[in-house]
Design brief:
The complex is a heterotrimer of chains A (115), B (196) and C (587).
Chain A lengths: L20 H29 L5 H23 L7 H19 L12
Chain B lengths: L16 H29 L7 H4 L2 H26 L3 H31 L8 H28 L5 H4 L1 H30 L2
Helix pairs in contact in B: 1-5, 1-7, 3-4, 3-7, 4-5, 5-7
Chain C lengths: L21 H6 L4 H31 L24 H37 L7 H20 L24 H30 L12 H33 L10 E2 L2 E2 L8 H35 L6 H14 L15 H27 L10 H24 L1 H7 L3 H31 L1 E2 L2 H27 L21 H30 L1 E2 L55
Antiparallel strand pairs in C: 1-2, 3-4
Helix pairs in contact in C: 2-3, 2-4, 2-14, 3-4, 3-5, 3-6, 3-7, 3-12, 4-5, 5-6, 6-7, 6-8, 7-10, 7-12, 8-9, 9-10, 10-12, 10-13, 12-13, 13-14
Classes of the chains: A mainly alpha (115), B mainly alpha (196), C mainly alpha (587).
């Protein structure tokens, strides 16, 4: 796939001035690599599910693979890796609250009498 | 009266307004789907018996759907990159592909739902099915929303490319962020519901 | 920080005011000021309506099973047979009073009205970042409100499972509950759009020189509040979807196995968890109470700085405390669930975080108190409200402590003590601050001042009546009187000794309504006949006072440059005792 830019013009004023033609070509190459990686990880996660691991192991492996795939999508397709750190702050805070919502109610199960 | 930073980026943040806006919206969506995930975990932990995903759901079909959605994410980002390279024709190609792949996802999902209903497997049957239908249903609604927005940008909305190309490219980037997020949710949904 | 606001790179999204039709100018306006005023009138009407519901309830509480005078016949035979309130109707009134006051009244007023009108002005911006989203946010709120109100007229009446809508009761309740859930979806949508707008506006549209640490505390308060709304509401939306699935789709998200209703086992799959709803609901509802208080603290801070003629004491600490408060607010929710049997491990965690969260609240309150020290204090009506907020919020906050500690909560949970606690924070707390804000910013919105004598009558009457209503609740609660009893505890032996307080509280509530009349008259008459004032009648330093009154479309004839912090009052070496933020430094 050839994506050479035929127009030399770029819009001035902050937008795209940081993204030149060569940069786009590099990014497109990365998109393709990430796509292949995502496909591979999908096949891996499906295959592993047929291995009949114990539930704890299965959950951890599945979530780790999903998290890896998710990070690839977020970092490269969503350009998070080239954004300023201030954006990460909002997302990290969100992640903390999400983990609280997921894990804190589970602590109620620590208290089961006569489980 | 003009609102600053709708097209150019504010130096401190490195963002134009809509990009920050969509990321914040996505943070709220993380909490929305996260709450449903949390509900699933709580209900499953407390359940005396919980079926394995593959006992009830069609894993090969869902794997195909996963690949379809990931591919649509690639075509989406390519449609934005095409605009960055001023290739409006490529943008139309990739955006059309994105929409088609999204529709294919929905068709397969509809087929999945249909077979479930045929066998009397409704959300009211069990908490597993309730969780499955609610999570995938809400995700499906988000896919529909994305398809509608993308179709607008491919159709009527694309007129903006002639008058305000940077603003249009920004819109595609923002639509892309939303679409990738929908893909991201499925990346977690798929193993959780089907493979565990 | 260079700001590139050149015609080519900014977008002209708002129409020319002169050429817009009536509908585009006043009804479907994109101007944050018009939208703010729409929120103001709608929310004040809802507050009045929610208050009216309570005044009707208070008759039943003071004189249980007595026919309601004047309106008893108008309520219909189902709601009030022979004019006597039916228990089912009492439950509807109770659930809707809470829902309306919190979601349709206070938050739209504190955030939608004050935030929308004032925030862009205080940061030196021409409007919000997304004017169209802003408009959609208001109309979504309006639709949610209409949905909620119309639920009174469906078979079975309005929602009646408490504003907290706990299952299994809410799962099997009458149709009004479904409307409550749909109404909440509209309101959550409105809130979401609004919070994105506020955060982006604050981060992206600050004027040149307006760094974060030069922001007025009111802006910080609204900024943190917006994050709370953004991240805390979605789990309630998820829960609402699940409850709708339970009610309409026959699922059992919240229905446990083996549930029996009036002697019959429910034919559902079971396997659900009523506690799951409570986790998701309180995950929102706890940050929600900080949504209720933060804007109020912001308003009080502005009024106090202005009327002491000195900077706020500990501005930096207040900002960090507000941020920490917002963060911690997400980690305390299950202190509303100590009595569910969820266990001591989880209770210990939440008790600890709850104690920790009291610290930033105290820091903010203390800083505001110390700000008074050594000031040249003036006492116009806004300042009276702001000053009263301080001890009232103090009482509200302190009475929360035995509730946040699990052992003492055993005695106090679900009693009138709780009602007294949270009303102190919201009613003589937030509402007093909001009134103060209305008196304070009225001149900016209209170019005229409200009458000070009527203001003082309104203030003293409101303050005294509110204390007479809510203080006895602590007495009743400590005596063990439960909340949500449709006869106010008349049937319980342990309540008999304190029941006379019900009459006191009801009288005070009805008197409170009378004291709102001077406010309503003052408000409307002053719009046309109030004393005309120049653009900065309070001699304040923040940017909104640099705009004309009322500000035109676009707010500032030229976007201001900011040279100094928000509270430069009585700065040595300056002639006036206040130096506006946009006044350049002396050379």
């Amino acid at each position: 796939m050839d994506f050479l830019v035929s127009y030399p013009l770029l819009i001035v004023g902050g937008y795209m001035s940081s993204i030149g033609a060569g940069e786009i070509k590099k990014r497109v190459r990365i998109y393709v690599i990430v796509f292949v990686a995502l496909l591979a990880l999908t096949l891996v996660t499906v295959t592993i599910s047929y291995l009949h691991l114990g539930i704890a192991a299965a959950v951890i492996v599945a979530l780790l693979i999903a998290a890896t795939k998710g990070s690839l999508v977020a970092s490269y397709f969503m350009h998070l890796i080239s954004e300023k750190k201030v954006l990460y702050l909002a997302l990290i805070v969100t992640a903390v609250f999400l983990l609280a919502l997921v894990f804190l109610p589970l602590t109620a199960y620590y208290d089961r009498i006569g489980n | 009266m003009q609102i600053p930073y709708t097209v150019t980026t504010r130096p401190e943040t490195g963002l134009f307004n809509a990009k920050l806006g969509i990321w914040l919206f996505l943070a709220s969506e993380v909490m929305l789907f996260g709450a449903l995930f949390s509900s699933y975990i709580l209900l499953r932990t407390g359940a005396p018996h919980w079926p394995h995903g593959r006992e009830i759901l069609n894993v090969p079909l869902a794997t195909l759907n996963t690949i379809i959605l990931i591919a649509s994410s690639v075509t989406m980002v390519m449609s934005w990159a095409s605009l960055a390279m001023k290739r409006f024709d490529r943008f139309r190609l990739f955006m059309s592909l994105t929409i088609l792949l999204g529709l294919a996802f929905l068709v397969i999902k509809g087929f999945e739902y249909g077979t479930k209903f045929e066998h009397g497997l409704f959300p009211s049957q069990s908490t597993f099915l309730a969780v499955y239908f609610t999570l995938t249903g809400l995700h499906g609604l988000h896919v529909i929303g994305g398809i509608i927005v993308n179709s607008y940008h491919l159709g009527l909305g694309s007129k903006m490319w002639k008058t305000e190309p940077e603003r249009f490219a920004n819109r595609i980037e923002v639509a892309g962020l939303y679409w990738h997020f929908v893909d991201l949710v499925w990346i977690f949904l798929f193993p959780t519901l089907y493979l565990l | 920080m260079e700001q590139a606001v050149t015609p080519e790179d900014a977008v002209h999204v708002v129409g020319h005011e002169e050429s817009l039709s009536f509908w585009r100018k006043y009804v479907f306006s994109l101007d944050h000021k018009v939208i703010g005023i729409q929120y103001l009138f709608t929310s004040l009407l809802f507050l009045l309506f929610g208050f009216t519901l309570m005044m009707i309830m208070r008759w039943q509480l003071a004189y249980p099973m007595q026919p309601i005078p004047l309106i008893g016949g108008l309520l219909g035979q189902t709601n009030a047979p022979e004019g006597i309130m039916a228990p089912e109707f009492y439950n509807q009134l109770g659930a809707m009073h809470g829902t309306i006051m919190v979601f349709l009244g206070i938050v739209p007023l504190a955030v939608g009205a004050f935030g929308n009108f004032i925030l862009p002005l205080q940061i030196g911006a021409p409007d919000m970042a997304f004017p169209k989203l802003n408009m959609m946010s208001y109309w979504s709120y309006f639709l949610g409100g209409v949905t909620m109100l119309s639920s009174f007229f469906v078979p079975g009446g309005a929602a009646n499972s408490g504003w907290t809508s706990y299952p299994p009761l809410s799962d099997i309740a009458t149709f009004g509950q479904t409307m409550w859930l749909l109404g909440m979806v509209f309101l959550i949508t409105s809130s979401l759009l609004g919070s994105v707008n506020f955060i982006v506006t604050t981060m992206q549209l600050r004027a040149r020189g307006m760094t974060f640490m030069r922001l007025p505390f009111f802006v910080w308060a609204e900024f943190v509040t917006s994050f709370l709304l953004l991240l805390a509401f979605p789990p309630l939306e998820a829960a609402a979807v699940m409850q709708l699935m339970d009610r309409l789709g026959g699922t059992s998200f919240f229905l446990p196995t083996g549930l029996v209703v009036t002697g019959q086992p429910l034919s559902v799959s079971g396997g659900g968890s009523p506690l799951l709803w409570q986790h998701l609901f309180w995950f929102l509802a706890h940050p929600e109470v900080y949504v209720l208080i933060l804007p109020a603290m912001g308003i009080v801070a502005e009024i106090i700085a202005n009327n002491t003629r000195k900077p706020l004491w500990g501005y930096r600490s207040m900002v960090y405390a507000a941020i920490f408060l917002g963060f911690m607010s997400f980690l305390v929710w299950a202190h509303h669930m100590f009595m569910t049997g969820m266990g001591t491990v989880i209770s210990t965690f939440f008790q600890t975080t709850t104690m920790i969260i009291s610290i930033p609240s105290v820091i903010i309150l203390t800083a505001l108190l110390i700000s008074l020290w050594g000031g040249s204090i003036r006492f116009p009506t806004p300042m009276l409200f702001a000053l009263a907020f301080l001890p009232m919020f103090g009482i509200g906050g302190l009475t929360g402590l035995p509730l946040g500690l699990a052992p003492t909560d055993i005695h106090l949970h679900d009693t009138y003590y709780v009602i007294g606690h949270f009303h102190y924070v919201v009613a003589p707390g937030t509402i007093l601050a909001l009134f103060g804000g209305i008196y304070y910013w009225f001149p900016k919105v209209t170019g005229r001042k409200m009458n000070d004598v009527l203001g003082k009558i309104h203030f003293w009457g409101t303050l005294i009546c509110m204390n007479l209503i809510f203080m006895p609740m602590f007495i009743e609660g400590l005596a063990g009187v439960s909340r949500r009893l449709y006869d106010g505890g008349a049937q319980y032996a342990h309540a008999q000794g304190v029941l006379h307080w019900n009459v006191v509280m009801s009288m005070a509530a009805w008197t409170l309504s009378l004291f709102q009349i001077p406010f309503i008259i003052n408000f409307f008459v002053s719009i046309k006949k109030g004393k005309k004032v120049p653009e900065n009648p309070w001699e304040a330093t923040t940017l909104e006072w640099a705009a004309p009154s009322p500000p035109p479309h676009g707010n500032f004839l030229k976007l201001p440059d900011v040279y100094r912090g928000p509270y430069e009052y009585s700065v040595p070496g300056y002639e006036k005792d206040f130096t506006p933020q946009n006044e350049p430094q002396k050379v």
